[in-house]
Amino acid sequence: MKKRGWTGFLRRKQYVIAGTLVVIAAIGTTVLYSNHQEQERQQMEAELAEEMNSSREEVAEVPDTEESQEASAVIPPKTNATAEQQEETAEAVESTETMETEETEEKAEKTASTVDALHFSKEQGLMWPMQGDVIIDYSMDATVYFATLDQYKYNPAVIIAGNVNDKVYSAARGQIQGIENDEVTGCTVTVNLGDGYQAIYGQLKELNFEVGDYVEAGHVLGYISEPTKYYSVEGSNLYFELLKDGVPVDPVEYFE
């Protein structure tokens, strides 16, 4: 009886130990399984986080790549075109300013050279503009008789008799300042002699010079024309007047 009781006790003990081992093994297996699942979960989370970071980076890079390329394909040409237009405009303005400056300088040089070149004084004297007799004298102090008008009046010039087509010479160096057709003196040429002096030639035709031209003493300005109706009795002639600062002076006092 005692042997059977001890044997039974040992068997129960073995069953308890075996059950305990089974429980321990189950718990260990469960723990290992849980740890493995946790590692897999952590690995999946890490991979998911890495994929999300990669997606964010790709999304962040899109404006710098595709959108930037699209922008650079559209915007830069406009910017470059504007810059080129601005540069061309600036060059055109600069070129225009340069041309205007050069023209102004040339005009200033011409004006300065003209002022410096044109000098006249009473001591220099005048050439006779043509050969002929003075038929009406200069007279601003008293009136003189004009046959055609049949009246006395002041005369600011000398009237020199001549024939149609006679040559009329420049009495001094100067620049042609004006050409006009006057009712009294016909085709009339005004020459600037410098220093306030002007020589006026009337009753001319077939001029050899134009306004702005320079003439030297002795150059042929033109020719005697038919007289105007104001000098029909006097006949063909040269009307010659000399001004100093706009005031008539006696040309005879200046003739050589």
Short structural description:
This protein is α+β, with helices and mostly antiparallel strands. It is 45% helix and 27% strand.
Describe the protein in words.
- There is one protein chain.
- With 256 residues, the chain is α+β, with helices and mostly antiparallel strands.
- The protein has two domains: 1-117; 134-253, Glucose Permease (Domain IIA) (Distorted Sandwich).
- 45% of the residues lie in helices and 27% in strands.
- Strands 1, 4, 5, 6, 7, 8, 9, 10, 11 and 12 form a ten-stranded antiparallel β-sheet that branches. A two-stranded antiparallel ribbon has the order 2-3.
Spell out the key features of this protein.
single chain; 256 residues; alpha+beta; Glucose Permease (Domain IIA); 2 domains; ten-stranded antiparallel sheet; two-stranded antiparallel sheet; 1 helix; 12 strands; 27% strand; rod-shaped
Strand and helix layout:
Layout: H1 2-117, E1 134-136, E2 139-146, E3 151-155, E4 158-161, E5 167-169, E6 174-182, E7 186-194, E8 197-205, E9 214-215, E10 220-224, E11 237-244, E12 247-249
